[in-house]
UniProtKB/TrEMBL annotation:
Residues 1-54 are annotated as: Disordered. It is found in: Cell membrane. It is an enzyme of class 2 (transferase). This is Phosphatidate cytidylyltransferase. It holds the Pfam family CTP_transf_1. It catalyses: a 1,2-diacyl-sn-glycero-3-phosphate + CTP + H(+) = a CDP-1,2-diacyl-sn-glycerol + diphosphate. Its EC number is 2.7.7.41. PANTHER family: PHOSPHATIDATE CYTIDYLYLTRANSFERASE. Belongs to the CDS family. It is a multi-pass membrane protein. The chain crosses the membrane at residues 66-92, 112-129, 135-152, 159-179, 185-209, 230-251, 257-275. It comes from the Bacteria.
């Protein structure tokens, strides 16, 4: 029988294994790298949240833009009257959003007169008698004058905005109807598509080029997200569309005229975009409305089209194409 060890209350110390210093540093670095990878791979990391948010925003913007484009295409190739109908609806909504914004700045325009004129301009564009649009303009100014005289509370700024709103949102939009009316066949629909499509392509290329390569601000006090690089990308996209129109050979459009249309519409469409951005900044809103997810209001989506479409119609008309 072996003897038991005396109970002393203290256990003998076990000798610790010595780990080389180099191995310790290697283990520590490996742990740091694993922690960094875990932080990057976790779905709740700021980088992951940013990527997911950008993807969701792009998907929402693309989906609503696709629906908008499909509806427009269906109306363009359905004929002149469907084109007039969709432009009338869009002009009315844009005018309504414009009135909403100016009321936020304390102005009190006459919505009834302005919205009625917004409907009348595109309808007058398909009337069989010449001068219908000029007649609508004259009637609008006369009605504004009568309202100003009969309403003591109104001021001249309210009258000016009442007349300006439908001219800006509807009279300019009616140029799309005039382009479509120039040829009721599918060829006219294709020309109208090119007129609208070049603005869409310009906006899209400006957005992607500006997002990827934008370094220099175009108008930081009006629209901080716009860049000079995006502007040139949009301009190239717009010109490319009209060079394609020339290559199709369906219209009497020379290459210099095609380049001129693309360059002028590309520049003026940016002016139209900045014009509406200046209005929004003046009243302190980010979007003119919320009818189009990812884009804001319809006026936000159409601001470039209003000025760009007008310039395209004028050049096509003066150039003898329509």
């Amino acid at each position: 029988m072996s003897e038991d060890r005396p109970m002393s209350g203290k256990e003998p110390k076990v000798a610790e294994k010595r780990i080389p210093a180099g191995l310790k540093r290697g283990m520590a670095n490996l742990g740091t790298k694993n922690d960094s990878k875990a932080e990057r791979s976790t779905p709740e990391s700021p980088r992951g949240q940013g990527a997911r948010g950008w993807t969701e925003k792009l998907l929402t913007r693309t989906t609503s833009g696709a629906v908008y484009t499909i509806v427009i295409l269906a109306c363009l190739f359905a004929g002149v009257m469907p084109t007039c109908a969709i432009v009338t609806a869009m002009a009315w909504l844009c005018c309504s959003e414009f009135f909403r914004m100016v009321r936020m700045s304390g102005r009190m325009p006459n919505d009834i007169l302005g919205l009625a004129a917004a409907i009348a301009f595109p309808v007058a564009a398909v009337m069989p008698f010449a001068g219908a649009m000029r007649l609508v303009l004259v009637l609008l100014l006369i009605c504004c004058a009568i309202w100003y005289v009969a309403t003591p509370r109104s001021n001249i700024a309210d009258v000016a905005l009442t007349a300006f709103a439908p001219i800006y949102t509807s009279l300019l939009f009616s140029c799309i109807v005039l382009i479509r009316r120039s040829d009721p066949t599918w060829i006219g629909g294709l020309l109208t598509l090119a007129s609208m499509g070049c603005i869409w392509v310009s906006d899209a290329t400006a957005y992607f080029v500006g997002t990827k390569f934008g370094r220099h601000k175009l108008a930081p006090k009006i629209s901080p997200n716009k860049s000079v690089e995006g502007f040139w990308g949009g301009l190239v996209g717009c010109v490319a569309v009209w060079v394609l129109v020339w290559a199709l050979g369906l219209w009497n459009i020379s290459l210099p005229l095609a380049v001129l249309i693309g360059a002028c519409s590309g520049v003026i469409s940016v002016v139209g975009d900045l014009f509406e951005s200046r209005i929004k900044r003046g009243v302190g809103v980010k979007d003119s409305g919320d009818i189009m997810p990812g884009h804001g209001g319809l006026l936000d989506r159409s601001d470039s089209m209003l000025f760009g479409g007008m310039v395209i119609y004028v050049i096509l008309h003066l150039g003898g194409v329509i």
